[in-house]
């Protein structure tokens, strides 16, 4: 966008309220023709909205979001193939299924976390199918990263099992340098809650003492 276009978008968003939290400043509108529902991106999960992170980056409200056509095969235990906790017995916004094997079920939050970790190696955790599985997940709003799996990049940088030990913030404010870390306080090192492959000092990313999780710019 040009600067003028960006300002116009900001002005228009300021006039619209989010149908999830009811606060103003909703910049995302459902792509369905005739639907005027708007929402904030952080509110999308609570409103069961879908944003597709490819192509035209289309967004949909809960009523018009894409639905998985495939149904999960019946089985005795309805558990997530990733976290092993219980999932719904049917496909829904929060419970998804692999379109290839129709046997792997997972929470949306679990498959999203796996997608960020796996990068270009993202595939079904059960049948290992990649192409149809990845296409389906993208359509359903799962965000992917075009990078090697986090476990491979972490292993290349440091020995297996060794914790990441430097601040990767764009500007490190620590007078002792990026490698310095303390048990608590402004120079406590926080690791990315998704990949654990990058870190930041608490002060370098303006994290408060009550901030329990932080994600790097890649995740």
From TrEMBL:
Keywords: Ligase, Metal-binding, Zinc, Zinc-finger. This is G2E3 ligase. Coiled coil: none annotated. PROSITE patterns: EPHD, ZF_RING_2. Residues 80-127 form the RING-type domain. PANTHER family: PHD FINGER PROTEIN, PHD FINGER PROTEIN 7. It comes from the Eukaryota. Residues 1-65 form the PHD-type domain. GO terms for cellular component: nucleus. InterPro entries: EPHD (IPR034732), PHD-type_Zinc_Finger (IPR051188), PHD_PHF7/G2E3-like (IPR059102), Znf_FYVE_PHD (IPR011011), Znf_RING (IPR001841), Znf_RING/FYVE/PHD (IPR013083). The keyword Zinc applies. The gene is G2e3_0. GO terms for molecular function: ligase activity; zinc ion binding. It comes from Vireo altiloquus. It holds the Pfam family PHD_G2E3.
